[in-house]
Amino acid sequence: VLTKRIAVLPGDGIGPEVCAEALKVLEAVSERFGHQFELDVQLMGACAIDATGDPLPESTLQACFEADAILLGAIGDPKYDNNPAAKVRPEQGLLRLRKSLGLFANIRPVTAYEVLLSHSPLKSDRISGVDMVIYRELTGGIYFGQKGRTEEGAFDHCTYTREEIVRIAHLAFQAATTRRNKLTLVDKANVLETSRLWREVVQQIAPEYPSVAVDYLFVDNAAMQMILNPKQFDVILTENMFGDIISDEASVIAGSLGLLPSASVGETAALFEPIHGSFPQAKGKGIANPIATILSVAMMLEHFGLQEEADLVKEAVDYTLDKKVLTPELRADHPFTTEQVGAFIANYV
Amino acid sequence: VLTKRIAVLPGDGIGPEVCAEALKVLEAVSERFGHQFELDVQLMGACAIDATGDPLPESTLQACFEADAILLGAIGDPKYDNNPAAKVRPEQGLLRLRKSLGLFANIRPVTAYEVLLSHSPLKSDRISGVDMVIYRELTGGIYFGQKGRTEEGAFDHCTYTREEIVRIAHLAFQAATTRRNKLTLVDKANVLETSRLWREVVQQIAPEYPSVAVDYLFVDNAAMQMILNPKQFDVILTENMFGDIISDEASVIAGSLGLLPSASVGETAALFEPIHGSFPQAKGKGIANPIATILSVAMMLEHFGLQEEADLVKEAVDYTLDKKVLTPELRADHPFTTEQVGAFIANYV
Ligand SMILES: CC(C)[C@H](C(=O)O)[C@@H](O)C(=O)O
Ligand SMILES: CC(C)[C@H](C(=O)O)[C@@H](O)C(=O)O
């Protein structure tokens, strides 16, 4: 029996709704297994800007430092987009949170659920059986380099140190050894010096994992292969900017954007969130799919070492998919609401 | 009746084969309409490294400067890949050619051919009717910024000047006015300063094209939308690196990688090439699809102001598709060879 403290950041748009359902499921796990989860709910994102002027208030950051794990809903509000003059943006809070907590590895499993194949934009034979996990570097590269304006224009600097590559590369290789023993590095080594460094480091580390076959793909080719033959991928390793693009591309091929969880981990901290955004148009309508957030809770349980509990949550989700207890984007006729899906899964647990 | 000088760079892999067929078609145009095309065939890419040590020998560059247009096959050879130590790479020749000639706009039309819908990895309803053109900035950004190593790692600098954005933005807006009057800027303005500059410049220019509706998409979202709903796109405008990724992604959704041409233009120079690579495994087998290169010749004819001639080449290609005179990747039973497809199209012309 464990006691864990969890910082909960529901965020904006549909974030609070999907978080509420994920917490229902966590509560059910707690009841069934006797664990104690202490929740500390905090503001972050546009709602935090509205309330405090800061997308990541000091108290929120503090709560995250003190927690064993963080559950995030989603952040972002259209009133801060398309406005190059906006000085404060919800995204800044997210970037600062990642950097402050040292969450250097973003981990995104992408699975094709057989019952959902008809919802994929891809033909079923291309995606049936897809099962990959993407390791995206999350606190380096062009996201965090120097940026600014000059007389004539603007600049963004991309930098990587060896050490930044080494630590996430080990995580990705280790993951490969527990899976199908294949690792694909996605880079642009024919053009970028940082990519050549990534390739060098990965080539140096590879001998430590003799069971893992390593493959190298230029990012433009990877963007094509993701559509042409996504089954070829097992573990993908890549830098921050390419990971942003490739992992979002990967997330839609399986037709299950609302089902995909993610973990962002560092030496000590760990954050779990659905990969979908705050989807403001859907806010308050009861149509948001809570499953991605619920599966993020399953990743959190695994992170706590609670494998049985995590497996039970995943089993509950599979059952829900089988029974077609689904929100409207996956079931047009007689769809279920966000709350009904959450309750069904919590009940199974 | 025109006289034009064309530098021909067949390049590596299947490059020479597809160029040969495109030149057959150009010859047919010349015979039918009485134009004179003077060809100047030159080395470039891996074959140029092998012959001279330089992927872009001085004589090749000189020929390109003196030509009215350049036709490129494809460059690249596996022996120069996956070798971070290789000091000379075929790609360097291409990048230097683009920069030396000031080819700042890469233009890629992506069309879904109805007869090929069954070959798309996407379901037909998603792609039927897709018709977009991508304007990728080609001589700025992280490709051409300072790059190098430091004690601990490596760096690549991305810079853009206002002027670099202005000139391609005008081309893209002009294209939109001759099409469906929609322009989508793809950037990462929530993170990058250069992207915020792109957004600013595009917002400033937009009023000069009141008929054009402007849309802004973050690149990660664009990578998703390209799969979920590619029909929404008319003209896409984007910077160099994002353009590399998004245009390659776009090229496979229609199931017709071997059919897509491109133009790269500057103030004075213009280069035409298929978007596919050198595909070394297919070299010499007669299985390479020459249509992308033939359609690149059609774009060249348009560039010369020869609209009737260009339309005739496109009509010939449509006829070829209708009659299913196709290479193996598009026709498994009784496929035609590279030469047969080229001859069929040249003959129609
Ligand atoms: C909101 C944005 C800064 C963020 C990113 O680009 O990292 C998001 O797209 C993501 O992938 O988590
Ligand atoms: C070969 C490479 C340097 C090039 C690029 O990235 O620009 C290619 O991928 C392209 O898109 O023409």
From TrEMBL, chains A, B:
Q: Output the PROSITE patterns linked to this UniProt entry.
A: IDH_IMDH
Q: Does the keyword Metal-binding apply?
A: yes
* Pathway(s) the chain acts in: Amino-acid biosynthesis; L-leucine biosynthesis; L-leucine from 3-methyl-2-oxobutanoate: step 3/4
Chain residues that bind substrate: 98, 108, 136, 220
Q: How is the cofactor bound?
A: Binds 1 Mg(2+) or Mn(2+) ion per subunit.
The family annotation for this protein states: Belongs to the isocitrate and isopropylmalate dehydrogenases family. LeuB type 1 subfamily.
The name on file for this protein is: 3-isopropylmalate dehydrogenase
* Originating species: Rufibacter sediminis
The organism that produces this protein has a lineage beginning with: Bacteria, Pseudomonadati, Bacteroidota, Cytophagia, Cytophagales
Q: What gene, per UniProt, encodes this protein?
A: leuB
